[in-house]
Amino acid sequence: MTTYMLIMRTADEAAANQAIAEAGLDFEKMIETMGRYNEELLAAGVLVSCEGLDDPSTGAVVDFGSTPPVVTDGPYGETKELFNGYWIVDVADKAEAVAWASKAPLGPGVQIEIRRVPSIDEFPLDNEYIVREKQWRTDLLRRQADKAEGK
Amino acid sequence: MAGERVLPDGVTARRAVEAVWRIESARIVATLTRFTGDFALAEDIAQEALAEALASWPRAGVPANPGAWLVAVGKRRAIDGWRRDAARDVRYAALARELGEADAAAAASSTPPWDPDAIDDDVLRLVFIACHPVLSREASIALTLRTVAGLSTEAIARAFLVPVATVQQRIVRAKKTLSAAAVPFEVPPRDEYPARLSAVLSVVYLIFNEGYAAASGAEWMRADLAREALRLGRVLAELVPREPEAHGLVALMEFLVARFPARLSAAGEPVLLADQDRSRWDRMLIARGRAALARADSLGRGRGAYGLQAAIAECHDVAPSVGETDWGRIVVLYEALGRIAPSPVVELNRAVAVSQAEGLATALRIVDSLAASGSLAGYGLLPSVRGELLTRLGRTDEARAEFEKAIALTSNEREHAVLVAKVRAL
């Protein structure tokens, strides 16, 4: 199996907003359709994790174009693309990742970018930091499992 | 063309169709079974729809809603069949009206033609049909992999190292058997439910074992089979979320698949548990296994045979080394397993755990009484374990005799070599 990240982004906000308006979708309806899609991923045994992001106006941008970097509030200055959320899925191959992404309940103005997430074993295992990363990843997962079991 | 997709680099049209099929096949066959009232027919027309997709999508592109497209084609095929069958004219006319324009519109739009909650029940009915007790195990395995997991006949044949024709025959015969027995498309009634669910779980576990036991040498395809079983198990556990053993089985498979990256040496030789590089174990799968076991436990109905085996596997998976393994807990778990599923093999495994937890003499007593009972006569692992215990006790001559018995009982070359090496080392 291979792990892929499906990155949801709004490439054309105007088109996305218009699509939502035309479809007459309210917030509750959107939660419902997205919820069904997420549950479908879960029921198929492929979902590893997923998160959606809040409105960019509640965030900030750190731009390394100058020294020191420039920090601006809210949405990206001139960039139209907004990163809105992601799914991590464990699937047979890229074709299956594409097939799942294509099923997402999204409309015009929105894109999903599909990127493979390499396993830590693909990095040089004699590197000190990779060895340490394997260890802290193990610890992190163990703590999460303990938490899930209520220990 | 509008509404149709262009494929990215590295994804052939055939792979795209196969990927969609893997995701959608269970729902498509389930929907068509409900539509036609006939599982065997539904399976046939679903395969015809798949063949049509393979012919048309590479030219015309993948439709906006591939699942709905496949269902619509399947329904059309069913109606064509009925139209040919004059005896069913009345039924055809009724269904054709029902299908009408609405269905064509559904296929064209992006709205799924199914209600997700109702379809889950139909997928569960499908699982129960594929694993029905009138079928042989081979037949259930082939049907489950094809209809629920969406694997092609060729892929199933490759995974089980049998000719494609053999798998085809198994499926054809299985469908005939189901038709002859008039097996209903239903979730079994309450009094049959536990036995039927356990039959379903055992089919998934058989698929898993076929891949797990064979995951050696160059046969990586079979490790894929074990992963396929894990995925089937995850799907099943979501269909019956209130069943602790479904989660127990998933947990067991997660824990065992987690060790796959360490089960083969660089030279492709199998590596025993004690010698595996545990840093290569898949931590994500171990975490998933623990979550599945916690889910089984949270149902408050105790652990069954799968749950207990999962808990044993968990002890190994969370231990940094053989020496730091909680052998005392493993002994207790084997005792519990022996009570609900008594078996001399479980008893032998308990003896191995006892040798680590309590001492060699106690373990040897268990093995001796097993040997005296004769229940494991002809099973090479018994003299092999006994030889191991005797070696560690310093009783070299007796150990040699046991290893030689084990050598005589094995037909596996690798096992043979390991045992010969043990005799030499005495």
CATH class of the largest domain in chain A: Alpha Beta
- Tell me, briefly, the overall form of chain A: globular
CATH topology of the largest domain in chain A: Alpha-Beta Plaits
The multimeric state of the shown protein is: heterodimer
Number of discrete helical segments of chain B? 19
Task: Give the low-confidence spans of chain A.
Answer: none
Q: State the largest interface.
A: A-B, 32 and 36 residues
Compute the number of structural domains of chain A.
2
Number of strands of chain A: 6
Helices and strands of chain A: which structural class?
alpha+beta
CATH architecture of the largest domain in chain A: 2-Layer Sandwich
Integer average pLDDT of chain B: 87
Our count of helices of chain A gives: 4
User: Unreliable runs of chain B, pLDDT <50, ≥5 residues?
Assistant: none
Description:
The complex is a heterodimer of chains A (151) and B (426). By secondary structure, chain A is α+β, with helices and mostly antiparallel strands. Chain A has two domains: 2-117, Dimeric alpha+beta barrel (Alpha-Beta Plaits), CATH 3.30.70; 120-151, no CATH class. Chain A has four helices and six strands, in the order E-H-H-E-E-E-E-H-E-H. Chain A has a four-stranded antiparallel sheet. The mean pLDDT of chain A is 84. By secondary structure, chain B is mainly α. Chain B is built from 19 helices and no strands. In chain B, helix 1 (13-36) crosses helix 3 (66-84) and helix 15 runs antiparallel to helix 16 (360-373). Chains A and B meet through helix 2, helix 3 and helix 4 of A and helix 1, helix 10 and helix 12 of B.
Quick rundown:
The complex is a heterodimer of chains A (151) and B (426). With 151 residues, chain A is of the alpha+beta class.
What are the SSEs and their pairings?
The complex is a heterodimer of chains A (about 150) and B (about 425).
Chain A: E1 2-10, H1 13-23, H2 27-43, E2 47-52, E3 60-63, E4 70-73, E5 82-91, H3 94-102, E6 110-116, H4 128-148
Chain B: H1 13-36, H2 39-60, H3 66-84, H4 89-108, H5 116-130, H6 137-148, H7 153-160, H8 164-180, H9 193-213, H10 220-239, H11 244-257, H12 283-298, H13 305-318, H14 327-340, H15 344-357, H16 360-373, H17 381-392, H18 396-409, H19 413-425
Helix pairs in contact in B: 1-2, 1-3, 1-5, 2-3, 3-4, 5-6, 6-8, 6-9, 7-8, 9-10, 9-11, 10-11, 11-12, 11-13, 12-13, 13-14, 14-15, 15-16, 16-17, 17-18, 18-19
